[in-house]
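Purpose: get a first structural picture of the assembly so the mutagenesis plan has something to point at.
Setup: two entries, given in the order below. No constraints added.
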Amino acid sequence: MTLRDFIDRLLGRQPASAGMARERLQLVLAHDRSDLNPELLEQMRREILEVVSRYVEIDVEEGDVSLETEDRVTALVANLPIKRARPNPPAPGNDPTMATA
Amino acid sequence: MGWPEFGAIISGMSGIPVTSAQNRTILICSGKGGVGKTTLTANLGIALAKQGARTAVLDADFGLRNLDLLLGLENRIVYTAQEVLAGSCRLEQALVKHKQEPNLSLLPAGNPRMLEWLTPDDMKKIVGLLAEQFDYVLIDCPAGIEDGFKNAAAACREALVVTTPEVSAVRDADRVIGLLQTREIKPIQLVLNRVRPRMMANQEMLSVSDVTDILALPLLGLVLEDDQVIVSTNRGEPLTLNGTRSPAGQAYTNVARRLRGEEVPLTDPTKEGKSLRAKLGRLMHTKIF
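Result (structure tokens, whole complex):
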């Protein structure tokens, strides 16, 4: 937080808009560059969580799957805190789609 | 400056001309309209010509041409690129030489009807002809990423992307950069236009590093918002023509110098001031926690 932000907050003023411009732009560019709309991203996020949670118990509340862009390269970044391993993960060789959580 | 006789060089429209490596064909594009492509093309053209480079500017916006107007050459157009392509006139008949700066010539666009039959090959042909006799060929690209852009991009080796520190302009620039990179156009360099230092210092405008970080292009120039730009377009005399001391005029001259390989330092507009106001501005943006 800068001194300016602090004073803004103290006086109940709206924060400076450049930060908002930066955040909105980064998000929209990540989608533009990857050609993924928010709906598809959400679907992908759900499926990734589903697959991962077959193997380990994850903290869904704390988890985050998002697109991040740096130097014109867009990456899918998943941050999924693991609570513990599943006691009985799907056996290797089995069709994973048949596994039950 | 020596000015070669065109007639002696151009032998007509037959064959695809071979361009030498020294000639630079540069696309000036932005995606979004109204960010200053044509103003940059006009000012850069004049500045390069003043620095001794034989320069041609080509208006590739066949639908809505304006480069002639900004250069004050609108009343001197007889033929256009359209007639050159059709073979009904020679290139040197269509080229309009700038009176005060004879190193600069304008090749006007055709009229809107031309869009129907203009192809990337037509554009390559015109640019190839220009590259035979000019050191720099600047192509003022139409807005958008449709056929007009694709035709112009097909004819260029390098590109300057113009943008302003606004979300819409930066987003559109990003699209254009992606398309240029897939066409293997390089280098692609950035000109940040219409910068307002006070708004930047107050963090009410994307900063220079915000834009360069997001677009990940080398910054070739930084042009401040300047009322003189409008005055100069009213007169049809680009700011770089008369060596004005206007901030934008100097910035355009510096863009030309950097383009030619000269090292001209870029200064952060928000850090320049030694005034109390500037110092206060910096204090306000110190991170406190």
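The CA atoms of residues 17 and 23 of chain A lie 10 Å apart.
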